[in-house]
Write a structure and sequence with these properties.
alpha/beta; Rossmann fold; binds S-adenosylmethionine
Length: 230
């Protein structure tokens, strides 16, 4: 099962923590952009964090916001228990669900104001991403939004080409030892399916989102943050 392979990698949370700590995935820039949108939300809101990981970056941007209810979904029990710790300071409603977010979204009936994905949507193949957008759209109220931070490719790049371009950058990640770097490479080459900005715009439009904006891209154009309004 593809999601099972992803879980095995993220159960070794220490490697991912090092990658984030060195800002190799541009968390600082991405979450600064996400934080600006969150800070502008004037009404109390519920937040569904799909592929929440340890929620360390989301906890930071949600701090001092109008957050009313937080819900995390993750396939890794290791990551989810860290998320519970990192959200311990939030005294509003919260829920931590151990499971596959795609399945959860397909089965879910309760609406939520913000659906967020941080580096988890790209593990779905393209057709499932399209289904995800439609299901997510159906769960959002009239003033809801879908925000996602994901790896991207150019419109002409194949999967093989973008993964090769990513590796040209990642092979210089000196904070990781050779064994850790190999595990990251195996994970990305085995489980990542980046889409182009144009591809994401088209999927969002087909699902009925009114407008999509890019909030952030890194200098290597390997990652972007999107904000889709209902
Ligand atoms: C790269 S980490 C991102 C963590 C955090 N959102 C961030 O921005 O740093 C991806 C997380 O998504 C989770 N994940 C990936 N695919 C998933 C799926 N189908 N269902 C639930 N969680 C999933 C992984 O277990 C992992 O914790």
């Amino acid at each position: 099962m593809p999601a099972e392979k992803v879980r095995e990698f993220f159960d070794q949370w220490e490697i991912y923590r090092k990658v984030v700590g060195a800002d190799y995935l541009n968390h600082r820039g991405a979450y600064a952009a996400i934080g600006e949108v969150i800070a502008r939300m004037a009404q109390p809101f519920s937040f569904l964090d799909l592929g929440a990981g340890d929620a360390s970056a989301t906890a930071t941007v949600l701090h001092d916001s109008k957050l009313q209810h937080y819900e995390a979904v993750d396939i890794s029990a290791v990551a989810l228990s860290l998320a519970e710790k990192n959200m311990a300071g939030f005294s509003g409603g919260k829920k931590f669900i151990h499971g596959d977010f795609f399945q959860q979204v397909k089965e879910r009936r309760e609406s939520c104001d913000v659906i967020f994905l941080g580096l988890s949507l790209h593990h779905l193949p393209e057709a499932d991403k399209g289904t995800f957008f439609s299901k997510a759209r159906a769960l959002l109220p009239a003033d809801g939004r879908l925000i996602f931070y994901e790896p991207i490719r150019t419109v002409t790049e194949s999967r093989e080409e973008i993964l090769a371009r990513w590796w040209e950058v990642a092979r210089h990640w000196t904070e990781l030892n050779a064994a850790e770097l190999q595990k990251v490479k195996d994970h990305v080459f085995g489980s990542d399916y980046p889409e182009s900005v144009e591809g994401y715009f088209a999927m969002a439009e087909r699902a009925g989102f009114r407008g999509t904006r890019v909030l952030f891209t890194d200098p290597d154009r390997l990652y972007a943050v999107f904000d889709c309004a209902v």
